[in-house]
Amino acid sequence: MENGHQFQEVSKAKYDCLLFDLDDTLYPYSSGLSAQTAKNIEEYMLQKLGMEPAELPEVNQSLYKIYGTTMAGLRAIGYDFDYGDFHRFVHGGLPYHLLKTDPVLRGILQSLPIRKVIFTNADHSHAVRALQRLGLEDCFERIISFDTLNPSNKINTLDVKNGSESKPVSTGIFDFYEYVRHPGPDVKLPKTPVVCKPFEDAFEKVFEIASIDPKRTLFFDDSTRNLLTAKRVGLHTVVVGTSVRTTGIDHALESIHNIREAFPELWEASEKHEIVKYKVAIETSVIA
């Protein structure tokens, strides 16, 4: 029995889970979907939050860079709005037809013999629609989305007096545009209540929810910032969309289609893993 345990230790696969970002990772940024998403976010900021048109591009981009998502940044600086309303506005009218079915990626994912999980900052509905367009909706064990990590904050935006929809009410707005234009070393940015990448608490929640061991998991994302956090919390990291590996990131793939060439051991290890399970089972049955 001792030899059997030694064999199990030697043959144990390096990875037992693959964790994937969705947007601009499972399909390229060149699809145009992300650019349209950014436009829809700015339109939401204009129509729903009443922000100044001239400030929108700079504020949108800066909130995204600092807080991981523009929504997380908007909540941090004091805007109070319904998460579902935001997602419906931003993703509801996206041109999903820009995404094309990807039979090559589907074949790769279906041939992978280990767990595959989606981890996206987007809402669940968007993730499902995007995966369906790509033909990948049945290639993953589960989707961990914005909705998974953030409880609903349903806000009634109906004006009871006249029956019309009113704008979200927000008080005490932090002047983020002024901060961006004239950042000061003594200014402390407010924290966001939103749980999302690239913050460590989001990754820790994902590990708990999906029973993931970060030391045996490969994480694929197009965002260097997300990957650097992922590395700090113990994940093995792969940047997708470039062949240039940034310091602090383990691997780089110009395309998600290059997984097989970059990680042949993901397929090779499966045979060893099956042998290990079979050998342990035999020895157990003999002892019984």
TrEMBL record:
SUPFAM superfamilies: HAD-like. It comes from the Eukaryota. InterPro entries: HAD-like_sf, HAD-SF_hydro_IA, HAD_sf, Pyr-5-nucltdase. Gene3D superfamilies: 1.10.150.450, HAD superfamily/HAD-like. NCBIfam families: HAD-SF-IA-v3, Pyr-5-nucltdase. PANTHER family: HALOACID DEHALOGENASE-LIKE HYDROLASE. This is Uncharacterized protein. The lineage of its organism: Eukaryota, Viridiplantae, Streptophyta, Embryophyta, Tracheophyta.
